[in-house]
Amino acid sequence: MENAFMLKRATYHLWTFTISKLISSFGAQVYAFAISLYILQLTGSATSFAANLICSILPRTIIAPFVGYVADNYSRKMIIIAAQIATTFAIGGLLFVSINYGLSLAAIYTTTCVLSITSTFSGVTFSSSITGLVDEARIQKAMSLNQMSISFASIGSPAIGGLLYGAVTMPVFLVIYMIASFFALILESTMNFKLFAKRKEKTAEQSKESMRQSMKAGIAYMKLQPLLMTVIWIALLVNFLLGAFEVGYSFILVEKLKIDPQHFGLTQGAFAVGMLMMSIYFSVRKEVMFPLLVSKRGILGMGAILSGISLPLIISLSYGVVFAYYAVIMFGFGVIIIIVNTPLQVMLQKQIDDDYKGRVFAIFETMAMALMPLGMVLYGYLYDVLPPQWILVVSSILLISIVLILARPSVLAKVHPQLDEKNVLKRKLEAM
Questions:
Q1: Model-level pTM greater than 0.85?
Q2: Could you tell me if 188 and 24 are in contact, meaning their C-beta atoms sit under 8 angstroms apart?
Q3: Is residue 122 part of a domain?
Q4: 325: burial class by Cβ within 10 Å (0-12, 13-18, 19+)?
Q5: Separation of alpha carbons 250 and 366, rounded Å
Q6: 211, 234, 239, 255: most buried, per Cβ within 10 A?
Q7: Beta carbons of 138 and 10 less than 8 angstroms apart
């Protein structure tokens, strides 16, 4: 009877979590879309656009270790609720400034920093709580539904943002985000984050641990996990090189190719459709057997797409062909993002002990994003002084080379010993 109740509650969590993410992601992405276009049209500079991205990334990188400590030592539900309240107030503050004084880059950058901090608290804590919200058999389904909700929001928000941009004032975008944040808060307050949690009672000695000691314990735990260390190094360098896409894509389409905001929004929607379709696939299929191998192949595909973004800058194409080309490119990129992320996320959820999840995910985020601010500054400068097509091609070559080195067959065999056994058996069969 108790198990039936817990499974029923887990089902409720699956859908509440998904709807909450859908609502909050929709508001956040409409806001991000509008702010990005506003900055580009206000300044016409890739550097200013990159500065806003840095304001989103740098605070997350700095504060993530503290967030991990908090997530492992305090109520995860209260952390998430507090973060959602702070998000609502931050947007309300920017709305107040916009109505009374008008938007400025300083106000936008400040709000972006605050939202970055609140989203880090919410994101790391939610990642740490998945195994407490749903039963183990449905972790992949939970991760896929989470991604599907983000994809649904990504499909609608750029299209709606593109249609609304220029037709309504910036305060309207901010009001949409505030309303979305408030509804997400209500849903999150109904969830039981301890339903399947396996957190152990802390000893008196552990309760007295400082944040520094706690983080050291998290690092020591990670060193015993070969998969975690491999993924961190790959993410560190790949995220740096993907700065070429983060800064360059909007800059190329809006400033260089003069794509209409509505059409630009539709290409972003194609990216979300690709993510959605692949998320649906992962929600119904069995778990991937060799996640790091699958992710390696996906990142190689990312490298090819990164290079492909430069084609309309090299070859003269009609406006309609350029629009269709980028829609296809972004659809493929959305598919590959899910192929890279979902299998690894599921494996990490199952492999990491509940008591270490907050610190491990926080350290992972810090390391994965450590070079991104530098990448944003570098690429923001490079796009202002060099032809963007060559920046993309060189970044693509470096991305592919790094993954081939860091995820070479010998590394894959250490992370997935079964893969090496499978290859040996295959060679024996071929030799017969």
A1: no
A2: no
A3: yes
A4: middle
A5: 25
A6: 234
A7: yes
